Amino acid sequence: MAMIAASKAASSRLSNERKFSKEKLEVIHNTVLHDASMNSYSPVLRDEFNLSKDHVIIGSLGLLIERKGYYCLVEAASHIPNKDNWSIFIFGEGEERNSLEKLIIKYNLTDNIFLPGFRENPIDYLLDFDAFILPSIRNEDQPNVISEAMLFSKAVISTYVAGIPEQVDDGRTGYLCEPKNIKQLTDSMNSIIK
Length: 194
What we know:
Radius of gyration: 17 Å
Shape: globular
Helix content: 25-40%
């Protein structure tokens, strides 16, 4: 019987830490399909939040939990020198909502970073992103949401965590940062904004 992992990183971890036999481990990367349903989505974020076409939107979809590293994203955004013409939207709910709201206030980013909560139709919001960001700090495998963002031709900013480097080609399809590296996150977002 084989054990299936979604990334080479997860397979290696299972072998090294859990002592699974390498011969019994199979890697099958997560996939998302390009099909007719893709034509049923409609961008809604710019209209709902009254943002112009030249306003830069960096966005994320995910649980508001510590391992996703959103607190690093908020701190990194505080170092972006120009606070005009860009916003960060993080769609989702979770136990870190209150602490993220406090950080956004602490860094005076209430006009730039928004936590609109859960949406039934997240892809309709993703369509208006100029870039997708997932600053995970640990415990990922190969996030489907990154594949979904790339399916819709979004540049990705993420981290060298688990299988993410197997998805994102640094400098070509997006930017990869070391986990918790605030400067690299800031520089990556600045590149998108510019």
